[in-house]
Each structure stands twice: as C-alpha cells, then as structure tokens.
Amino acid sequence: MDQQWKRVEYETWDAAFKGLVPLVRQQSVRVAAYARELYVHAYSLSFARKFEGQERIHGRYADVAYKCGMYHQLGKALVPPEYQLWQEDVKEEEEQLYKKYTSDGRILVSTLQVRGAKSRFWKKEAFEEQPTENIPWLMIRESCQQHMERWDGSGYPDGRKAEEISPIAQIVGLARELDVLASGTVSETPFDEAFAMLCSQEGTLWNPELIQVLKAAEASCREVYNKYIHYTLTLPKTITLVERSADRSMGLSYRAIQDSMDGHIWGYEATPWFSGIANRPGEIERLDDVASMLKSTDIANDVANYFMYEAADTILRMGNCRLDTNKVLLKVPNELYTQGSKLKEFNQLFEDQPIEKDNLLLLIPEQLVKNANKGVREVIARYVRNGIVLVMDQFHPEAWEPEELKETAISYLRLSPDVAMDADTAESIEILKTWGFTILATGVDSQEMRDWMFHNGVAGLSGPITGNIITEDELIRDGIMRQQQ
Questions:
Q1: Taking CA atoms, which of 94, 221, 237, 287 is between 20 and 30 Å from 50?
Q2: Rama region for 101: left / alpha / beta (φ>0; ψ in -120 to 50; rest)
C-alpha cells in the first residue's frame, strides 16, 4: 500500500468523485448513462410494481437514476488507488477490502447528503449513516450498497436475492455489467455479445422482468455505447475514403510476419490489389502490375493515400480487438517518395486515424534509395526525421558501403530472397545488427529457410511458410481466435 496515502474525509460530492481513479470515473459516467435509459424503460413497463420500494421507479426520478449510476462506486474513494480496480490475483484480505466499497459507499453518500443539506452549519459527526425518508437519497444509497447483489443470491456484500434487492440497485447493477462486458470483450461486436450474455443470464443473475426492460432498451443502450466509443473497444469509425464495399476496385490483402520459431506473429505485410480488369471478372492485379498505369495517369499519390488509410484502419481494429500485434508493413507506389514531400498528408492521416507511427511501416525499394537524386534523398530524410518508419525492401548487403547505408537513416532492412541464405549474408546480418539495423526477410518458403533466418538473427520473416494471403476480416478473426486459445 502507498505509505503516502491517507484516508480523506470528503466535504463535497465533487471532491469524493475526484478521489476515484480515472478509469473508475470514466466507467461511472457510462454506467450513469446506461442506468438512465434502463430506468426510463423500467418505468414505462411498470417494472417492480410488486416490489417493496416500487415507488422509487417513477418518471420524475429519471435524473436521480443517472446520479445513482454516477455515484454507485463512490465508496472506492475511501481506499488507496491501487485497490480501486479489481485484480484477478488479489489476496483474500484484499478482496474483502475491495468488496467493502459497497457498504462504505452507502455511508459516504449519506454523510455527503446530510452535509449538503446542512451546508455551512455542518459540524463533523461520526462516520455513520444518517436515516432518511427522502426517496432520491434512498435510491443513491441503495444503488451504492446493493449494485453487486445478484438475483440468485450469489452477489455481495450481503448475499441478497430476488425481491430483497432494491429495484434501483438491480437497474444500476445491470447497467454496470453491460458496460463491463461491452468495454472488455475481445470482439468486433462487443455490445452485441455483452447484450446476448446478459440475456442468457435471465433468471439466474438477473431478474427476468429486468431482462425484458433491457431488451426494450436495447436501441437506446446501443446509442449510449456508441456515444462513448472512445472509452470502449468497438470498431473504429473509418473515414469515407476507405469505405468498404463489395464492389470496390482496390484494397489490401495480408500475410503474417513471424518473429520466432513458435510462429508468434510480429505483424502483417499488406499488399495492394486491384480489380475491375476488363473482360476478366473476379481477377485481381498487384501493385507492380499497374505501376506504369498509376504513374501515367498521375493518381499514384491518391492511391498511396487510400492504402495508408486502409492499413491504419486495420491497425486500429487490431488494437481495439486487443491482438498482440498492431504492426502493418505496407507496400506503396514509388511515387510517394519521388514527387515531393507528403508530410502534410501524413500528419492528416495520423490525426484522422490515431495510431502509433511505428505501427505503420512503409516499404521503399532498395534501388529507389540507391539511385535517389538529391531531392528524393531529402524527401526520404524528412519522412524519417518526422517519425515515418521506412523499410528498405529487396536489400542486398553487398551493394552498400557502411557509411552510405547509415546516411539513409533507414533502420529497417528487408532482405532480397535471392541472397537470403548466402553465407556472406549471415555475416552481414550480424554486423548490421550491431549497427542498430533491424533485419526482416520475405519470400520464405521452406522450414529450412525459416530456421536459417532465425538462427542468423532475422527479426521477422514472411512468405508461404508463415501462412496464406488473407483478407482483413480473416486477419481479425484469426487474431481473436489465437488470443482466446
């Protein structure tokens, strides 16, 4: 426990709420929004009309329901920050301390309510609950103490069951669980899976009548989820430029890049494809096949921009689904480097698609770097200085003098397959690593070649040996499956 932390006697609601760690405050805001929507639908469906305390479910108290969600975890402000978030490996005594926040929360809000009522005439009294008949006050107290109770009696702190649980506490408890599941599910459809999970627990963890309320409130709860998209793990909103459609004429396909013998995936190489070939429906062409056409029609930079946005969106999806890699190695038209600096477009990209720059790596052919004139060399240098990660592709170690290679400022080198297994290449890899270069490889098509590469210090490799070429959706699906194994 932090020896500097001291228990605080809070004088105001705002001070107590600020005593919560940021993640708990953020969750409380979301739970408050869910709770209000559920409460409104509960009232319209006459939820809990046979319960003791049914008078707490009334349209006039919808805003109180929001406050119940906002302050249901307020008791956590009375413990050190490290005990405010649930950890799976807590000791038994720490678990009891954590769970105590429910009862402490009820006492804390009752104290704050009385202090607020007495205003400046308040004098410090014992830290114990002050009785009340005020319905809004009772609703907040009950939601604090009972939101972790469950219909079958399996909850805490008191193991209440069925009608013993306050109606407002049931609503807040369900709102909290909806948020926990929706924001923590490793999936592309977290809200849908959370909703289905709660419905499947009808009659066990949740009052069947309350599940009917949830079903009626599905659309409005989904709106809450979408409103707080930045706090949750949903799919990123793709900008119009990369709108997916069944008949689109170009896109990216992917192949895994492995970084170890056990098949761990370091990232994915992304290869552009083009369709719409005249008289050849269903066929596609690769970037090299259309390079001259792109150059002659002066659209290469627009195409490069499109592919970078699509790759960035894939990186966002990988992160939002909590895959253990977020890296994409992208092949782009050469014109990106030969027609002047595009730093303005890069800056806009990273503003529109907020990813880490070092997760989007761009291939640049070795010959383009080798033969670059002064203007192209300056463009390449500007990109590197501004954090754009370039990977020199089809690299031949014997073609470079040490100082010449270092002057490029490019730190990633991807070996050409035709030199990959040369004895001289193995020696070169060792030297290049000592100079700070990261060595990758492509075209790896046998176990012997893979083993040789890893033995000689290649950081990542790809080719038929690392898997088939797949779509973005298959990448996400397979990644989620690996995470769940």
A1: 221
A2: alpha
pLDDT surpasses 90 at 357? yes
One domain for residues 120 and 140? yes
Cα–Cα distance list, 115 to 18, 110, 125, 306, 347 (Å): 18, 9, 10, 59, 51
Decide which of 271 and 48 is more confident. 271
Q: Could you tell me the CATH number of the domain that includes residue 318? A: 3.20.20.450
* DSSP, residue by residue, 374-424: HHHHHHHHHHHHTT-EEEEEEE-GGG--HHHHHHT---EEEE-GGGTT-HH
What is the count of structural domains for the chain?
2
- The answer to whether residues 174 and 210 touch, using CB atoms and an 8 Å cutoff, is yes
Residue that finishes a domain, picked among 205, 231, 257: 231
What distance in Å separates the CA atoms of residue 158 and residue 407, rounded to the nearest whole number? 69
Q: Which residues partner with 286 through β-bridges? A: 273
With vertex at residue 237, the alpha carbon angle to CA 235 and CA 238, rounded to the nearest 5 degrees, is 110
How many CA atoms within 13 Å lie on the side-chain side of 406? 9
Contact residues for 355 (Cβ-Cβ < 8 A; gap 6+): 312, 315, 316, 319, 326
Domain membership of residue 453 (yes or no) is yes
Q: Report which listed range, 237-251, 359-373, 463-477, is most confident.
A: 359-373
> SS3 of 202, please?
strand
Closest to 371 measured CA to CA, from 342, 343, 392, 387:
392
pLDDT at 301: 84
What is the amino acid identity at position 467? G
Q: Please tell me whether the peptide bond between 157 and the residue prior to it is cis, using omega within 30 degrees of 0.
A: yes
Q: Which residues pair with 391 in a beta bridge?
A: 363, 412
User: Of 201, 231, 261, which marks where a domain is finished?
Assistant: 231
Q: Are residues 331 and 207 in the same domain?
A: no
Closest CA to 170 of 48, 41, 27: 48
Average per-residue pLDDT for the chain:
86
- Do the domain assignments include residue 2? no
The phi, psi pair for 483, rounded to 5°, reads -65, -30
Question: Among 438, 439, 432, 462, which Cα is nearest to 450's?
Answer: 462
Burial class (CB in 10 A: 0-12, 13-18, 19+), 278: exposed
pLDDT in tens, 27-46: 999 999 999 999 999 999 99
Please give the span between the terminal C-alpha atoms of the chain, in angstroms, as a whole number: 34
Does the pLDDT at position 3 exceed 60?
no
